[in-house]
Design brief:
Distance between the termini: 40 Å
Number of helices: 0
Structural class: mainly beta
Shape: globular
Order of helices and strands: EEEEEEEEEEE
Largest sheet: 7 strands, mixed
């Protein structure tokens, strides 16, 4: 079983920064060749994959966040991070972390690639 708990959301003004955390409880989950990702869902929009990281620290980003967001992982703490800089109002959404055994690299920003999800944390960016 895998349990994921996000934190760090909040309200900021445009141009500000936030760092999200996702603590993973990997009770019986072998920490080999697994991927973790960040997704977000804005009101009336589909869930969007924005960043993913594998156990070799191979990272990928959606174009919408490239250069502004950074995904990282502290393996000793079983924690995934998302550093978000230069935030824009269009970044407002609920942010989710997800985990599963890695599949094709090209599919790591797709929701269907992950079985395990956190409950999300709200990020609101005001103009």
């Amino acid at each position: 079983q895998v349990r994921l708990v996000e934190s760090g959301g909040g309200s900021v003004q445009a141009g500000g920064s936030l760092r999200l955390s996702c603590v993973a409880s990997l009770y019986t989950y072998a920490p080999i060749d697994y991927c973790m990702g960040w997704f977000r869902q804005a009101p009336r929009k589909e869930r969007e994959g924005i960043a993913a990281n594998d156990s070799d620290s191979d990272t990928i980003y959606a174009d919408s966040v490239k250069g502004r967001f950074t995904i990282s992982q502290d393996y000793a703490k079983n924690t995934l991070y998302l550093q978000m800089n230069s935030l824009k109002p269009e970044d407002t959404a609920i942010y989710y972390c997800a985990a599963d055994v890695c599949g094709d690299r090209e599919s790591r920003l797709e929701s269907r690639s992950y079985r395990y999800w956190g409950r999300g944390t709200q990020v609101t960016v005001s103009s």
